[in-house]
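Same chain as my last thread, 175 residues:
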Amino acid sequence: MAGEAFARGFNKAKSKAFIADGLKVNWSLWSTHFSHYTSITDLMHALSYVDGAAIASHGRIEDGWSLYLDWLSWVWSGDVDRVIAALQRIAVGQEEVPEAIRRAITCLSNNAERLKYAEDRKSGLPITTSPVESTQKQINKRIKRTEKFWRDESLEPLLQLKADDLSETHGRGAF
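reply #2:
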């Protein structure tokens, strides 16, 4: 994987970011091959936990909305410790802590060093994988249009060709 990143010229970038969700396997990959890249937990991933916890703390979306907006702004500004503290205060006052609140505390605590969004934005780094995921969905939609049927063995090479063409990393002569 590191070899492919090198072949694609990633090493030439002045600033480098490794963005992923909170899965441990992603951060093992980062520490093994890309530890010299800035590690960033995907903003949308973090906010999904914050949203779930805000709803769980009030029982309804409508009631948790203003709390979510506060927490969202704290996460956006890089003040994730403030969100963790607020969640812990809520948890202490409950006999049984809702799963969404426990998961948010765990996710934010485990990834706190990778949730420095204000700092990362100031450095010009991306803070979400959303543009890449959106492009992937566009490619899939265009390739899998109605009236187009692909045999399983032919679809993957076609997707690879399209991805390579868009990324401009491999000449067509390689195929």
